[in-house]
Amino acid sequence: MIEFRDVTKKYPDGTVAVDELNLTVEAGTITVFVGPSGCGKTTSLRMVNRMIDPSAGEVLIDGEDVRKSDPALLRRGIGYVIQQAGLFPHRTVLDNVATVPLLSGWTKAKARTRAAELLETVGLPAEMGKRFPAQLSGGQQQRVGVARALAADPPILLMDEPFSAVDPVVREGLQDELLRLQGELDKTIVFVTHDIDEAVRLGEKVAVFRQGGVLAQYDAPAEILARPADDFVSDFVGRDRGYRGLSFVDNEGLPIGQVDTVLVGGAHSPSQQWTLVLVDGDKPRGWLAPGSTVDGEWTTADALAGGSLYTRGTPLRGALDAALSSPAGLGVVVDDAGAYAGVVTAEEVLKVIESRRETAE
Fold it and tell me: Keywords assigned by UniProt (predicted)?
């Protein structure tokens, strides 16, 4: 558990980076610090591992003030991931990951064995260990950074905007990977971002900071979206916070319909309805528009891109995304294995939302 008790950081020029912060990060959870630039979120994070010391107040880990610990020893027991990974360019991936175990006195063989295990844990093949950072993509470098932070099996992981330098598709994959790892490893994670979507997706609790290092609201993401503490929080999470809030609304009562399907390589007569193209027997690949014709057998090249897929049983935001991104206006529903299960419409999603609202009132 990490506690901030009346923590203030004031610099000699009078700038207050953090102002009387009181906050508790529960063990085994992901807590996200979010806010505009210059609001003190990174300064607060760095006071946990003593990269910055507070001017007043206390930062405690399991009840012990971090200022009683030697900074170097403290940091070896806390994983730290930064933007663009911060890897040593002259060391191989394997040796980058083994850095902290070696500093902690592990033998080289033991440290490298642990590093190889962690590459697999973060989804990288073993042969990546022989490469240098410059030979990796941005997303791969970030995975190596996470592996390095986990190498000595620290109970706490600090992550300072670790995914902000990669493209949106890679970023979403890294977020998924972090959630998967947390499900396996159960670390206490403090994550800094300026992106409210990333905050509500990852955080079990979210701390919203305002300019001047003031904590504006600290709560579960669904609560922040539904009941912002003040105008600042409301403006920061955005006018579309109701849409973001769909990430926390289950799909109970959402009707799932069916459409005509055709297998790639199979014959298909022109239809006046949208037809879903499947590969490997049951995996959605795209759509055939009404009246579509082609000589011979259908191929994936004949299909229109199908938009996002909605996994059955997950929150309603995914269902609405799938319906709105589909050229057919039909969101494709799949099961956990990615097999076609049916379709939904945006209208049906909105009806479920409205019925929930009426029930709540």
Answer: ATP-binding, Nucleotide-binding, Transport
DSSP for residue 91: S
CA 149 to chain centre: 17
Residue 160 φ/ψ, nearest 5 degrees = -100, 95
φ, ψ of residue 108 to 5 degrees: the values are -60, -40
- Domain locations in the chain? 2-248, 261-360
Q: 244 exposed, middle or buried (CB, 10 Å; 0-12, 13-18, 19+)?
A: buried
Distance of alpha carbon 166 from alpha carbon 143, whole angstroms: 12
Q: What is the pLDDT of residues 152-188, one digit of tens each?
A: 888 999 999 888 777 777 788 888 888 888 888 899 9
pTM of the full structure: 0.73
Three-state SS at 121: helix
8, 79, 255, 281 from 109: Cα distances, Å: 44, 21, 56, 47
Tell me the CATH architecture of domain 261-360: Roll (3.10)
Helix (H, G, I), strand (E, B) or coil at 72: helix
- 2-248 CATH fold: Rossmann fold (3.40.50)
DSSP string covering 207-268: EEEETTTEEEEEE-HHHHHHS-SSHHHHHHH-TTHHHHGGGG---TT---B---EEETTS--
What's the pLDDT tens digit per position in 18-76? 999 999 999 999 999 999 888 999 999 999 999 999 999 999 999 999 999 999 889 88
Residue 190 near residue 33, CB atoms below 8 Å: yes
